Amino acid sequence: MTKHLETDNTWEIGGKRLSSRLLIGSALYPSPANMEDAIKISGSQIVTVSLRRQAAGDNSGNAFWDIIKSLGIEVLPNTAGSHSAKEAITTAQMAREVFGTNWVKLEVIGDQYNLQPDPFETVKAAEVLIKEGFEVFPYTTDDLVVAKRLADLGCKIIMPWGSMIGSGKGLMNPDNLIAIRKQFPDLKLVVDAGIGKPSHATQAMELGYDAVLLNSAIALAQDPVKMADAFRVAVEAGRLGYEAGVMKEREFASPSTPTVGTPFWHQFKE
Amino acid sequence: MIKVSVNGEVKELENDLNVSEMIEALEYKVKGFAVAVNTTFVPIAKYSETIIKEGDEIDILAPVQGG
After folding, report:
1. Cα separation of B23 and A117, whole Å?
2. Partners of residue A136 on adjacent β-strands
3. What is the ipTM of this complex?
4. B36 chain-A contacts, CB cut-off 8 A
5. DSSP one-letter code for A178
6. Contacts with B27 from chain A: Cβ below 8 Å
């Protein structure tokens, strides 16, 4: 059997060299054991986590955190639930102490209905967090100018949405994502949110995105562990496709079978 | 005694407790937490010098699942 080609298989993000380009969330799984199995089979080396209030006598947070620690992979704390730069900054500072990492997925929500990131507060928070030494992974819309502002502040990573969080609608505006990729060839770009099925992840990778971040698509599948494996392969396929160079689209048909030697054509019939 | 809000619930505490003493008084058992007072982060190094006052809003956050 022919040996499979490897992708250009390691890449760097936030100062870490990794082989997987799939960032995975830890929420919404049917059980902690299912989450653990799904994360393992996904091959992901970055898992997102969060901070929440817990009742004083409750120690269930320990069990979750113990599982995550035992996986031995990078932890990316988010600031989910923040509605202002101030809330996001405080959450990031608390996360740095609890999780022992300067990485933060900066998420400031501007609209309760579609959970759209608030670009103004996100930019404000990013500026402060970068000064405080954080490696900021900002979750943003697919707006080019917002990406530019974040890059100007010193963000080396930008995570535009595919579509609304948890919607599973895939890439709403591929052209916007392409524009960001073209404008910022040196930034690490991750499509975050809205991915619903493996082909969405493949599409994002084919656009030249460095990675994808998803949670619901795996956790809410009927079989999250099998879906985690599907996404592992899908991300790999998309990356290989990008590296291989996709053919140019054409406005006309062009036969793939050679026309020379076409049977049943005879000169005297003319 | 003073009244404060801890994770959104009103609690009564002795006067002049610092953050470490407050955690002990609340019998907070979750390991790996961080504290904010009035939405400002209080690092561990500042627990002993940060005194809880009447009306303070305290958040104690611990690791959970996230996307």
Report:
1. 34
2. A104
3. 0.96
4. 90, 94
5. H
6. 56-57
Contacts A–B by Cβ distance under 8 A: 113
> Is A49 within 8 Å of chain B by CB?
yes
Q: Which of A31, A49, A51 to mutate to test the interface with B (most CBs of B within 10 A)?
A: A51
- β-pair partners for A104: A136
CA neighbor of A42 nearest in space, from A208, A220, A236, A210:
A236
A137-148 pLDDT, tens digit each:
999 999 999 999
State the pTM of this model. Answer: 0.93
Answer yes or no: do B30 and A35 touch at CB < 8 A: no
Compute the distance between CA of residue A213 and CA of residue A235 in angstroms, rounded to an integer: 11
Give start and end residues of each alpha helix (H) in chain A. Answer: 32-42, 60-71, 85-99, 119-131, 144-153, 174-183, 198-206, 216-219, 224-244
Sign, CA dihedral A249-A255-A258-A259, equals negative
User: For A35, which residue in chain B has the nearest alpha carbon?
Assistant: B65
Yes or no: say if A210 and A201 are a contact pair by the CB < 8 Å rule: no
- Residue in chain A closest to B33 (alpha carbons) equals A98
Residues in chain B with CB shorter than 8 Å from the CB of A93 are 34, 41, 43
Q: Does B37 touch chain A (CB under 8 A)?
A: no
What is the β-pairing status of strands A16-18 and B57-65?
unpaired
Three-state DSSP at A240 gives helix
* Cα–Cα dist A144/A146, whole Å: 6
Q: Do A53 and B8 touch (CB under 8 A)?
A: yes
Cβ-contact A233, A21 below 8 angstroms: no
Residues of B in Cβ contact (< 8 Å) with A166: 67
In tens, the pLDDT along B4-60 reads 999 999 999 999 999 999 999 999 888 899 999 999 999 999 999 999 999 999 999
Let me know: does A67 contact A31? Beta carbons within 8 Å. no
Closest CA of chain A from B18, distance in Å? 17
Q: Six-digit token pair at B22?
A: 């407050």
The length of chain A, given as a count of residues: 270
DSSP state of A267: G
